[in-house]
Structures are given as C-alpha cells and as structure tokens.
Amino acid sequence: MIGLVDCNNFYVSCERVFNPRLLGRPVVVMSSNDGCAVAMSQEAKALGITRGVPIFQVKEIIRRHDVEVMSCNFPLYGDMSSRVMSIVAEMVPSIEVYSIDEAFFSLDDADTDTLHSRGKEIMRRILKSTGIPTSVGIAPTKTLAKVAARFAKRYKGYGGACVIDSAEKAEKALRLTAIGDVWGIGRRTSARFEADGITTAYELASMTSEEIKRRFNVIGQRTWMELNGQPAVVSEPISRTKEQITTSRSFARTTASLQQLSEYVAQFASLCASKLRAQHSNAMSIAVFIYPRGDNRGLGHGSFAELTLPEPTSDTMTIASYAILALRSIFRSGPDYKKAGVTITRIADVEQSQYSLFIPEAERIRRGNLMTVVDDINSTIGEKTPVKVAAAGNNQIVKSEHRSRRFSTRLSDIIEIKAE
DNA sequence: TCTGGGGTCCTAGGACCC
DNA sequence: TCTGGGGTCCTAGGACCC
C-alpha cells in the first residue's frame, strides 16, 4: 500500500505555528510581490477567497472581515517542510517527497485497522513535533492515495486519515470525485471528458482499456490504470538534479530602464548560478525573458533570447555577463517592463562536463575556488550583506510588505518569549 | 491600476546519421 | 522518368503539478 501525507493549508499552518494570534482567524498567504492568494485558512476559504485570485479583487472581503494577509516566506516554509519530512521518514520504510507539503510513503502491512492507526500516528507525531496539521490517504496506488487524502480532509468522520483498501471503497470514493479533481487531469483534459459526458472519476475508471488507448495519451492511460488499482506512476529517485533552473520575478514597480533591468537580470542569473553550484552541476545555455506591461501570457515577439555559454560553467560572473548580453539583444526602449527572468538549461554534472580546449584550466580552477569561497561566506556570515556581483545592484525587486520573520533559519529572527 | 514562481513529462516534427 | 529504410537526438509547445 502507498500512503500520502499532505499538510493542511501548509503556508498558513507554518505562519500559525509562530503566531498563535492567527489561529481561528481568516488568513491568506500571498504569492511573491503580494500579488495573488496562494494559501488560505479554512476561515478564509469560507469567505470565498480562492487559490490564485489576485489580492486586489478581494480587497473588500479582506477589509470587511479583517482577514490577515501575509507575504510568502519561503525560507520558513522550506525549513518546516524538511522537519515534517524527516519525521515521516523515521516512521515508514521509504518516503518520496513529492512537493513542499506532500510526501508519498510505502507501507508493507495490509490490515485496514493497522493502516488507519498508522496513518493517525504519523499525523499525531507531526503535529506534536512541528505544530503542522496534516491529512493522510492510503491506497494501492498514488492516484487513489490522492483521492483518499482528499476524503480525509473533506469528511470529518475519517479523523484525518482515510484508507481505500477494497474495490467497494474505491468505487464509493470515485463516484464522489469529480473528473477534474483526479491527480493528473487538469483543466484542458477535464473539459474534454466533460464534453463527452464523463464527469466523475468512476466513469473514467469504468471505460474499457481500448477506449482509453484510442482517445488518450499515455498519461491518460496511466491515470486510468491507477484508478483501477494498478500502480503506473513510477517513483522518482530522491533529490534528482534539476534539468532546468529558473529565477524570475514580477517587479513591485514597472521599469523602462535598461540599467534597472540589467541589475535585476544579474540578480536572477546569480541566483540561478548558486542553485546550480548547490546541485554540483554546470550549465551550457542561458535564456533571458522580459514581460512588457500588459503582456500576461509573456513571450511576445522579441522578448526572449537564449545564448550558448563558452563552456559548461556555474560561475556567477560568466553567467551574469551572458545574461546581460542576452537582455541587451531583446531590450527595446519605450515599453515599461513588469517582469523578467533567467533560465539555465543543458545542465550536466560537474564530473561529466566537457570543457573548452581553448580556455586555460588554471582560470577555470581559480574561478571555481572563488565561487566556493563566496558560497562559504554567504552561507555563514553573509546573511544580510552577501557577497555578490556589482552588476546586481542593491535594489529590492518585489513587494513583500507583510512578511513574517525567518524564525527557524536565522538566529537574529528567533522567536522571543517574554515573561509578564 | 493593481494578477506567482518553479518545475516535470510527453509528443510531433525537424535535422541528422548510416 | 525513375530516388530507401530505419533509426536517434533535439526542441518547442502543450498540459499538468504544487
């Protein structure tokens, strides 16, 4: 059997751990730049605030009901996530961390009572050790475990943990699950199904395999198998190296200045480079994109440029200077820009990188040593004033007006308890 | 007026190889 | 006038996830 542990309203729950004043109240955590709602407490959901809605559209609800709005605080959520995951890892034979707030795990026993109580025990330990409430779903496949976890969340009777361990239970759950709520079936695919009169997960699971093969791609076929209890979604090896690394932001204020954009792009490139070094890789290619105001889809004509680097590298200075070259090739004076980003691709492990014959190895080694020192400084004493390329400037890019402190990762932000 | 960010997988089509 | 067959690799775009 496969289990799924899913943290409830994760970002909001993290904020509540360190700020009990938020308990029992409507709370919204906003996306970067304080733009959209990305996590809501139950109380905020009840007021009709939905995930992804722009904050300015719900201003009136926020004002009228005194909703607490928080800027997102990823260092906090990331740290809380790894605490939750390490607790789960101690309690199960194997774990696959699927996202910041979810993990699949394996369970070898098959008895329903044991499964249910083990699920509850995992929830209890996580809550006690971290303060984060969770839900658990257990079933023969990942897709069914997802269904089970939704049920655990939705219906109080399960006590937070739901087990699907028979055909009858699966059928009951699938009949109550809308097609678009199935893992792997998004907006586009569910619209296609609905046009054919298929509205529940049960109707999808009941199709014949010929029908599925004729009408859908392999993803649809896998989903169908999983709903019928046959595992088809393979496990990922833990901590795979990334094949693509992106850093992008919307700006607090739009800008028409090449100088300003160059600083932002240099910052994004630097961040990409340090993420690259953290996974011990080099990249061969760098792309820069800029969004003019009014272009929400992005990537209008001439707003994207990709360059090949002289050799595989993770050197901040090389990557930043190529990023600025790429930016200059697409920048036009006139429009206001509201967003930019840098993506590095063609990533390979340092040991497997094939370097240029014409760049002296000594230079490569010197740069590598320099980056190691920079990373060391920044990870130990560079908290507030990190060492960086001068081209990155010193400007705050995004708006983040309601951010909590980095309680669990920064000593100067540690929580204080005052005696009355 | 104001609307996130960072990923993965799959597929079709082009380029290329022998 | 007539001109093969079988394959790999890469990339862009679509769809999806949290």
Structure description:
The protein is of the alpha+beta class and 420 residues long. It has 3 domains: 8-76, MutS, DNA mismatch repair protein, domain I (3-Layer(aba) Sandwich), CATH 3.40.1170; 92-227, no CATH class; 245-392, Dna Ligase, domain 1, CATH 3.30.1490. The chain is 40% helix and 20% strand. The protein contains 14 helices and 12 strands. It has helices spanning 10-18, 42-46, 59-64, 74-91, 112-130, 142-154, 167-175, 187-195, 201-205, 209-215, 218-227, 258-278, 316-330, 361-380, and strands at 2-7, 27-30, 37-40, 68-70, 95-99, 102-106, 134-139, 161-163, 245-255, 281-292, 304-313, 337-349. The strands form 3 sheets. Strands 5-6-1-7-8 form a 5-stranded mixed beta sheet. It is globular and about 65 Å long. It starts with a strand and ends in a 40-residue tail after the last helix. The mean pLDDT is 91. It binds a DNA duplex (18 and 18 nucleotides) through residues 10, 30-33, 35-36, 38, 52-57, 59, 72, 98-102, 183-189, 217-219, 236, 242-250, 296, 339, 341.
Which key features would you list for this structure?
DNA-binding; Dna Ligase, domain 1; 420 residues; 14 helices; 3 domains; alpha+beta; 4-stranded antiparallel β-sheet; 12 strands; MutS, DNA mismatch repair protein, domain I
What low-confidence regions span 5 or more consecutive residues with pLDDT below 50?
A: none
Q: Main sheet, how many strands, which sense, barrel?
A: 5 strands, mixed
* CATH domain fold name of the largest domain: Dna Ligase, domain 1
The count of DSSP E runs of length 2 or more, i.e. the number of strands, is 12
Category by helix and strand content: alpha+beta
Intertermini distance: 51 Å
* Shape, per Cα inertia axes: globular
Q: What is the rounded Rg?
A: 24 Å
Strand residue content: 15-25%
Number of separate structural domains: 3
Adjacency order of strands in the biggest sheet: 5-6-1-7-8
Helix content: 25-40%
Count of separate DSSP helical elements: 14
The CATH superfamily of the largest domain appears as DNA polymerase, Y-family, little finger domain
Order of SSEs: EHEEHHEHEEHEHEHHHHHEHEEHEH
Q: What is the correct CATH architecture of the largest domain?
A: 2-Layer Sandwich
Overall pLDDT level: 91
